[in-house]
Amino acid sequence: MPSKRGVLLLSGGLDSTTLLALVSSEGYAVHALSFDYGQRHSAELSAARKIARRYGVVQHVVAKIDLRVFGGSALTADIPVPKNRELDDRDSVIPVTYVPARNTIFLSYALALAEVVEAGEIFIGVNALDYSGYPDCRPEFIAAFERMANLATRAGVEAKDTPAIRIRTPLIDLSKRRIIELGLRLGVDYSMTTSCYDPGAEGEACGLCDACQLRLRGFGEAGAHDPAVYAAQPSAAASETQ
Predict the structure, then answer these.
(1) CATH code of the region 4-191
(2) Fewer CB within 10 Å: N-end or C-end of the chain?
(3) Which of 19-28, 179-188, 232-241 has the lowest mean pLDDT?
(4) Residues 6 or more apart whose Cβ sits within 8 Å of residue 236
(5) How crowded is the C-beta side of 189, counted as CA atoms within 13 Å?
(6) Is 80 exposed, middle or buried (0-12, 13-18, 19+ CB in 10 A)?
(7) Sheet bearing 121-123, strands edge to edge
């Protein structure tokens, strides 16, 4: 049995799947945690279940919370998902696809699960380079949450001077290209993943939202084929490197 135990946030997307492949290759017993939070791109939950089975996680918890009661995001309210934005301009403002406090909420659930299963590490696939301007994907946020986690839990208090819980972000400094290259080396089947913020009725990706464009550009820069099914042709900005 693996001696290392970790909780991993699994969305069913490209980054979290690559992270799961990496953590599994390092011998961790993984407790995967996904969320049904009222997101319009709920197709990611089906992907997460398949991916969890593929990697033989110890446990896959799907927590149901409804962030639509707050709204405030194109993913949880009747707000259009932006399409065909210029990728190089995306850092100028926080986009409307940002879900207020989402990673804070998700990590809080992961922290509770980590205490119950006695896992000392929580893995999250945040990325500070191709992160679409989300404030809760930055290293400063992760460091602050880790400090809070060790103040707010029994495990943290009993450990005293040594952090009992670490928030691990192995992908945080990687470009989308490097994440994809890492995943391909690990044998990730990216056809199982979904990234689109506004998928069609059959789960096909729009090819035009920020997430699709970042994914397409990453595959293009990696010189690899993106196996996702797209309903629309990739935009010129996303496909120019393919």
Answers:
(1) 3.40.50.620
(2) N
(3) 232-241
(4) none
(5) 10
(6) exposed
(7) 59-64, 28-36, 4-9, 121-123, 166-168
- Cα-based distances in Å from 147 to 107, 163, 164, 223: 13, 8, 10, 39
> How far is C-alpha 157 from the chain's CA centre?
29
Q: Which amino acid is at 150?
A: N
In this structure, are residues 142 and 172 in contact, taking their beta carbons and an 8 Å threshold? yes
Token representation of residue 35: 């969320």
Q: What is the pLDDT of residues 76-124, one digit of tens each?
A: 999 999 999 887 665 567 889 999 999 999 999 999 999 999 999 999 9
At 123, give phi and psi (nearest 5°). Answer: -105, 135
The single-letter code of the amino acid at 15 is: D
Number of residues in the chain: 242
HEC letters along 179-233: HHHHHHHCCCCHHHCCCCCCCCCCCCECCCCHHHHHHHHHHHHHCCCCCCCECCC
SS3 31: strand
